[in-house]
């Protein structure tokens, strides 16, 4: 959680949380890629796309 707070302090609440999420996705994605775990890569891509849609839809 210290790393997340570091991102928030550096970039602001929303952008810091988003950068932290990207860092987690990159880390898990890299590990899944090394293992050849295509299912996890698809799940991560789906989750990232869902986050994008959530924050770009007009209300």
Summarize the structure.
The chain is 88% helix and 0% strand. It has helices spanning 2-11, 13-35, 38-56.
Sheet/helix structural class: mainly alpha
| Model regions low in confidence, pLDDT < 50 over at least 5 residues | none
- Total E-strand runs: 0
Quote the average pLDDT: 87
Explain what you see.
- The protein is mainly α and 59 residues long.
- The chain contains three helices and no strands.
- Helix 1 packs across helix 2.
- The radius of gyration is 13 Å and the shape is flat.
List keywords for this structure.
mainly alpha, 0% strand, flat
Outline the secondary-structure elements.
Blueprint: H1 2-11, H2 13-35, H3 38-56
């Amino acid at each position: 959680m210290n790393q997340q707070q570091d991102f928030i302090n550096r970039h602001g609440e929303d952008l810091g949380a988003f950068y932290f999420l990207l860092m987690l996705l990159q880390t898990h994605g890299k590990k899944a890629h090394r293992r050849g775990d295509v299912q996890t890569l698809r799940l991560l891509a789906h989750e990232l796309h869902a986050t994008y849609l959530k924050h770009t839809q007009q209300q």
